[in-house]
Amino acid sequence: MRFNSFEFAVFFAAxxxxxxxxxxxxxxxxxxxxxxxxxxxxxxxxxxxxxWFTTALDWYFGGLIARVDARWKKRAxxxxxxxxxxxxxxxxxxxxxxxxxxxxxxxxxxxPFYLKVVIPLGISFYTFHTMTYTIDVYRGRIAPCRSLLxxxxxxAFFPQLLAxxxxxxxxxxxxxxxxxxxxxxxxxxxxxxxxxxLFKKVVVADNMAILADKVFADPTxxxxxAIVLGTIAFWIQIYCDFSGYSTMARGLALWLGFQxxxxxxxxxxxxxxxxxxxxxxxTLGQWFTDYVYKPLGGSxxxxxxxxxxxxITWTLTGLWHGASWHFVLWGLYN
Length: 334
Prior knowledge:
- The structure is a single chain.
- The chain has 334 residues and is mostly helical.
- Helix content is 70%, strand content 0%.
- Helix 2 packs across helix 6 and helix 3 (47-67) crosses helix 6.
- The two termini are 33 Å apart.
């Protein structure tokens, strides 16, 4: 189900009708969790198995990190969690990319080892959600979540599950304690955000895609000016598609009583590359800053290490977007 589909409209209307029947607290959290699993499972029910396993794994190890006393035990628990999460991500998303590069470098025939798997939807997003949780528990920044129900809802909350923004446990879990009813401004704000996101997706992005697809399908049949126009159309399409989904997600979450972080700050209106990058997919940039760049030393190091830290962070940012060298080069370019 896409946010701009008829099926989703029926699904969300049914959810809104059911909400008043479930008291705030665990009953409503349970309803939202079931709805999130139905939403995610509508793409492929098999994907739910990995989502459930990842949820249970990180909930268990987050609690274990808080319970054990020895520093080395905490670190071991953290590394088991991180290796499991990154292992799943590597297997599903980067396995064949790795084999392609092994074949290119060594000349070996790796085709018999190719993985005939479908990449689970949203795996990059929910993997980062769960990793954030265990890292922050390890650092002592948040207390472990004692309720598996609440933690599962944090991981699977459907408005942001497939296209972000990237949530942190410290942002979402405290909101589960909310007991007051929705305010009129939340309902109106949610409607405004959803309509804005829907406009960006359906009216702008989908129409820009018509022009961009036609030019990119066979650029040799077009003039240089047409190719430039098609490139600009593609740029606008990517922004309005991605930011449209993030904006709709924020609107949907408001109707359900939750605040999601803003993910885009009008990047196409920025006047230099640094401002543009800081305004694009902000929650991803903040994630890599806090969990990669700063642990490497950030900017509090010498010039050579600073350059190294920036290059590593941006290369991984590029690779996060997709398993191919043009994404790696895009990260290096940034």
